[in-house]
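lol so apparently i was supposed to do this last week
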Amino acid sequence: MSDSKTCNIVVLISGSGSNLQAIIDDLVNHPSARISAVVSNRADAYGLQRAQQAGIATHVLNHKDFADRLAFDTALIQVIDQHQPNLVVLAGFMRILTPEFTRHYAQRLLNIHPSLLPKHKGLNTHQRAIDAGDSEHGCSVHFVTEELDGGPVVIQAVLPITADDNAEQLAQKVHTLEHQIYPLAIRWFAEERLHLSPQGAVLDGQVLASSGFQFNS
Ligand code: GAR
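anyway here it is w/ glycinamide ribonucleotide bound
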């Protein structure tokens, strides 16, 4: 953490930012964690308005303005590092990151993914869970490594898939759980209870199981 022991957090978004809102609301009175900036790769991301309403600095960096992934990620690092983050939070940031980016933020980069990882990495997770005949679905917060959606899991929330669930209904249920587990994981990190070790994610001195901490709502 920085000298003042404040955990500076930069949040990356691409869209609605409902997870960002949950994090803003959770940290509003936190004594030692603050969101320093929100960065979006899309100028029309509603999450930018959420940040502005909360008085948080915003930046837009359009990936289409860059020749390739590495050029974009290099510029993104420059924007993020203006804020000297202790933690970078991906909250619906829909870009595949280069190894250069993930290495730069190694051990201080978290993501939320709408599935029970390692199941259903990538997109369209809700429909894929239904199509696979899964009886359970959910969401995972994980440390980001070079492997897409593959870093050590910190926390998961599980829900049953019922016979009449469609992808939209499942997405809504998963979102509700996301809004609970992401702020919790971020608090753990900010309060120095959570870190990444060579053995995996560590919470309160214990290496977590590969499925992470199991959240009960
Ligand atoms: C969330 O469901 C998050 O899990 C997903 O995008 C949504 C963003 O919603 N992220 C991914 O799929 C990353 N691979 P939000 O903008 O309302 O927070």
